[in-house]
């Protein structure tokens, strides 16, 4: 009997010259679905025809419905890792059918050792970096520019992502779809149902971009149906033909929710109980253009942020986690600002995201992270022909001395050339003050993945200007970037960003202003092709930030000396970093009731070396250990950090993280510690209990977030969420209750 688990639901100039010296085109022929593709190049445009059926299959994780016999069987998968286009170690069979309402995908993934199938993720909405997984990528508009990614594992956990560009995607986006899985003695099976109501599409387009991926983690093996340069994404995919007569229904989703909240402060003692109904409504104006309305928006069930220790003088960056703002968030991306230096170890997340004109986390949250009521809001987003549209209007309630405000953002872009785009953005309003503010910007994105030898070149350019009373002149920001990503051999990129001193995106994100920021990196990846070692990488990452009036602000040069990974996903890396910091004003990095430790003005040069070890996350017991030793401003720092995860079963996972900084400075010594422990308990595929405990000795605050989450069907959710904080205000190892917040919430999606 199969076991079933069901879930319903600068050498800059040299680099630039070499990048554009590749001018030969590598045109890919179209391969019809009746062609033997076993010997074709991996980047050939593969094609299959989806079969329309009258009766949908039963999504139960068993491929025994008669409709699957009508489908074309796709078996021509190949390795992307460790091999490149080589045959896979195990056979995979994929079937695709559809009816008026949904697309159905079934996959049988043969495995000679089914008892070793890795499935550490046990709840919905999590990434699957260490799971044996099935990946389905859809590009309903067949533009090769954006798309949707659906992943599942043996536990029938659902994870969906929205490609914000062809090389990056939002992990927090989610939509409604269903999956069920089973395992027998020779394979594991997944059946997916993706409703057409859950994704935008153009009914006039009968050919969709389509791709499949699969991972066998214990062998470090990745495989795909179509790939290029060991990569697959919406720009590197095949085609699914024959899609016609599909329906979005009425196109209306109503999502009412009700939450009961009891909030208590302990010093001084205050208690407050509230019952809040809210309503989200989503309407498909056309199959590819959506309208959304939110009334009395409730974010009480949003997951808490992971704590960070800040040892710099610049703001940290915390990502958006609220569903309302994550839906269609790709349409509001501007200039690829956050992605221009992504993966460059010399940069911080805050510096990479610096100068974003729109950052939805500024809405509905105060400067200290406290929720601010959103009375109502509306959004129109989607695609009309070559145009991509995102418009958002929010009425935010008053808080503190800040009056109620109307906030507006519109983002419009057009597809040009083969895979490129040009766009415009405008924001109006300041959610954190009573001062008027607006930002206007234009951007251009170039993509060419048709170069010789399967290489890709990407480029971005953008300009934006803010208008704020009292800040006249020097209120612009602009930048450009050039990248040649490559999973094998030589890769490189560079980017330049200038942020003038009065540039003020009140609805965006600023990490530092009055600077010019230059980043560059170059590296080389070698694949061994053996049975033990898979890859070796070495490279150099660099960032230099100068003040516009002259002089260095920060510089980092990271020598990534060696990064080795085995076919079982174990790894070791060695690096050395050289830092230059020019501090003009003192800033405090540690304080308690008795003293403060501050970095004084001056020019500092310091270096540090790091070694990292990690084991593959598919193991029952896995972990990571980092050791860093070196100078720190005018003193020294030792950093030890690590994590350990116990995948006890598909029903219980325990993780612990620890980060310890021992800093010794002439002006004072201190230790910064950050600890977290999390547990995940799956009572079934629809009922979870998740807990997170976090502590850091700088705030001396112990935070507990625990939630019971019930998902009887995709689109139906119930929560019981407790946030409880304790604090050692006197830092005498005596913790007292500081805050508690208990929320019971249920929301239900009605689809028409």
Automatic annotation (TrEMBL):
One of its GO terms (molecular function) is hydrolase activity, hydrolyzing O-glycosyl compounds. Gene3D superfamilies: 2.60.40.1190. One of its GO terms (biological process) is carbohydrate catabolic process. Pfam families: CBM9_1, DUF5916. Residues 59-212 form the Carbohydrate-binding domain. Coiled coil: none annotated. Residues 252-337 form the DUF5916 domain. CDD domains: CBM9_like_2. This is Uncharacterized protein.
């Amino acid at each position: 009997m199969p076991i079933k688990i069901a879930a319903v639901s600068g050498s800059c100039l040299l680099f630039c010259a070499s990048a554009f010296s590749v001018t030969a085109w590598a045109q890919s022929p179209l391969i019809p679905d009746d062609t033997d593709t076993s010997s074709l190049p991996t980047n050939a445009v593969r094609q299959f025809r989806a079969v329309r059926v009258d009766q949908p299959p039963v999504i139960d994780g068993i491929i025994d419905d008669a409709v699957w016999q009508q489908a074309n069987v796709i078996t021509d998968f190949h390795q992307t890792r460790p091999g490149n286009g080589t045959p896979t170690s195990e056979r995979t069979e994929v079937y695709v059918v559809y009816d008026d309402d949904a697309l159905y995908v079934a996959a049988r993934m043969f495995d000679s050792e089914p008892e070793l199938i890795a499935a550490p993720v046990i709840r919905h909405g999590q990434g699957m970096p260490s799971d044996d997984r099935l990946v389905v990528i859809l590009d309903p508009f067949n533009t090769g520019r954006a798309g949707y990614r659906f992943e599942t594992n043996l536990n029938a956990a659902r994870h969906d992502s929205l490609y914000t560009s062809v090389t990056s995607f939002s992990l927090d986006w989610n939509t409604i779809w269903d999956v069920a899985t089973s395992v027998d003695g020779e394979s594991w099976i997944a059946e997916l149902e993706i409703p057409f109501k859950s994704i935008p599409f153009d009914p006039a387009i009968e050919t969709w971009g389509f791709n499949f991926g699969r991972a066998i983690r214990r062998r470090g093996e990745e495989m795909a149906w179509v790939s290029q340069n060991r990569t697959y994404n919406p720009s590197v995919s095949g085609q699914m033909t024959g899609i016609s007569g599909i329906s979005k229904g009425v196109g209306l989703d109503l999502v009412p929710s009700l939450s009961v909240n009891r909030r208590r402060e302990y010093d001084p003692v205050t208690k407050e109980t509230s019952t809040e109904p809210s309503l989200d409504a989503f309407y498909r104006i056309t199959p590819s253009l959506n309208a959304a309305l939110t009334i009395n928006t409730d974010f009480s069930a949003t997951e808490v942020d992971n704590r960070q220790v800040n040892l710099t003088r610049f703001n940290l960056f915390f990502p958006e986690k609220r569903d309302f703002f994550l839906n269609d968030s790709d349409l509001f991306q501007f200039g690829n600002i956050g992605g221009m230096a992504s993966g460059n170890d010399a940069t911080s997340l805050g510096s990479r995201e610096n100068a974003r004109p729109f950052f939805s986390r500024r809405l509905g949250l105060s400067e200290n992270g406290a929720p601010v009521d959103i009375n109502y809001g509306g959004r129109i987003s989607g695609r009309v022909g070559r145009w991509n549209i995102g418009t958002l209007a929010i009425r935010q309630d008053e808080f503190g001395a800040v009056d109620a405000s109307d906030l507006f953002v519109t983002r419009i872009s057009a597809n040009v050339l083969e895979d490129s785009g040009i766009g415009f953005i405008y924001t109006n309003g300041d959610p954190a003050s009573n001062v008027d503010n607006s930002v206007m910007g234009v951007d251009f994105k170039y993509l060419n993945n048709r170069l010789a030898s399967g290489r890709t070149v990407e480029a971005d350019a953008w300009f934006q200007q803010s208008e704020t009373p009292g800040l006249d002149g020097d209120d612009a920001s602009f930048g450009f970037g050039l990248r040649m990503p490559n999973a094998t051999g030589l890769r490189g990129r560079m980017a330049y960003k200038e942020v003038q001193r009065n540039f003020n995106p009140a609805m965006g994100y600023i990490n530092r202003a009055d600077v010019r920021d230059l980043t560059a990196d170059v590296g080389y990846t070698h694949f061994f092709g053996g049975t033990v070692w898979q890859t070796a990488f070495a490279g150099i990452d660099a960032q230099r930030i100068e003040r516009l009036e002259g002089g260095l602000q920060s510089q980092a040069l990271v020598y990534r000396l060696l990064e080795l990974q085995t076919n079982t996903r174990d790894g070791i890396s060695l690096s050395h970093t050289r830092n230059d910091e020019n501090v003009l004003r003192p800033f405090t990095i540690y304080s308690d009731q008795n003293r403060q430790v501050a970095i004084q003005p001056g020019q500092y040069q310091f270096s540090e070396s790091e070694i990292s070890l990690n084991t593959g996350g598919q193991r029952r017991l896995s972990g990571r250990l980092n050791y860093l030793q070196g100078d720190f401003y005018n003193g020294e720092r030792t950093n030890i950090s690590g994590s350990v995860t116990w995948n006890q079963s598909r029903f219980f996972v325990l993780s612990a993280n620890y980060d310890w900084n021992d800093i010794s400075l002439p002006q004072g010594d201190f230790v910064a510690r950050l600890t977290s422990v999390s547990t995940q308990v799956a009572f079934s595929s629809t009922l979870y209990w998740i807990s997170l405990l976090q502590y850091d000795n700088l705030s001396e605050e112990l935070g507990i977030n625990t939630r019971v989450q019930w998902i009887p069907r995709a689109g139906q959710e119930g929560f019981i969420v407790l946030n409880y904080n304790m604090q050692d205000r006197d830092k005498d190892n005596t913790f007292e209750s500081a805050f508690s917040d208990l929320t019971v919430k249920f929301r239900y999606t009605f689809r028409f």
